[in-house]
Every structure is written in C-alpha cells, then in structure tokens.
Amino acid sequence: MVEVLVNSEEYNEVKARVDQTLPSAKIVKIERVQNTWQWKHYTYMRENLPSGNPCVEKMLFHGTGQNSPALIHQGGDGFDMRHSKEGMWGRANYFAQNASYSDAYAYNGSGFKQMFLARVAVGKNHHTAPDSKIIKPPEGYDNISGETNGSVVYMMYAPYRAYPEYLITYA
Questions:
Q1: Which of 25, 116, 133, 160 has the fewest CB atoms within 10 Å, i.e. is most exposed?
Q2: Are 64 and 93 in contact (CB under 8 A)?
Q3: Which residue has the higher pLDDT, 80 or 49?
Q4: What is the reported pLDDT for 76?
C-alpha cells in the first residue's frame, strides 16, 4: 500500500469521484493498492473474458461490510466470493457507480470507514431487475447490472474481474 499524496492529481481524482455522491465524507487518507499477484490475474481476465466480448473497464466503489479490507488487498484472492453474501442479484461481488451506495456497506473499524475504488472488467452487460436466485449471467454475457438506492450496481460472479485500486479511509 502506498499513501497517495494529498492534493496530488491522483488524490484529487479519487476525491472528486467520492464527492460526486458522498460530499459529506471527510477523507482521512487514500492508499493505492500494489498487489502484483492480483494485478496479473486481473489483467489476464480483463483481456480474456469468458464470453470473448471486449472489456469495458470501469472504476467502481465496493464496501466490504464486516470484512476487513485487508482480506481483499493483502491476499492473492482479491474480491473472493467466499466473503460475499447473497444480495438482490444473488451471491456476487457488488460494485457501485456511486460512493453513496457503497457507504452503506463500508467497513467501520477504529472510528473510520473504509471502501475501495476498484478497477472492474465489465464485458457484455445484462441489465436486469433484482432476482436473488441469479448465480451467473445469462449465456453470452459477462456480468449483471441493475439499479438500486439511486445507483447503478454491477455484479461479478467470477474471480479476478476486479482489482482493488484504492482504499479510501474517511469519516
């Protein structure tokens, strides 16, 4: 982990993304994750989506709930489905366009909240209404998306489809 310098271009870009939908957040620090194992796996999956569809990379927010963010950024498994709970679109890793959505799922440890701004490999997307019985995208699609609580959310049902680029600590 490398702490991003306050007021650097990188810091200001991440802060601006948070401020768009969560302006009340007081950012304590932003750290860039540097996990070469996960990065190699992510870039391979990004270039080789199972459907063969081209990848559209998005920067999306992810809250870890009661799980420490270290489970994601320190290990080799990254966004591991074993830590996921069943949600509105089944058991998946959920990533949100809006920080305000992920704030409800932010890790709350030692008086501060934490969430990731992740790099997510979105391929051919199937946008649908909630269905908790979903276990994978329909044939020919790479992921599912939907809308809830004012945000578009993307669900990934396979490993290494996202990389935890930044860990944001805030109050």
A1: 133
A2: no
A3: 49
A4: 73
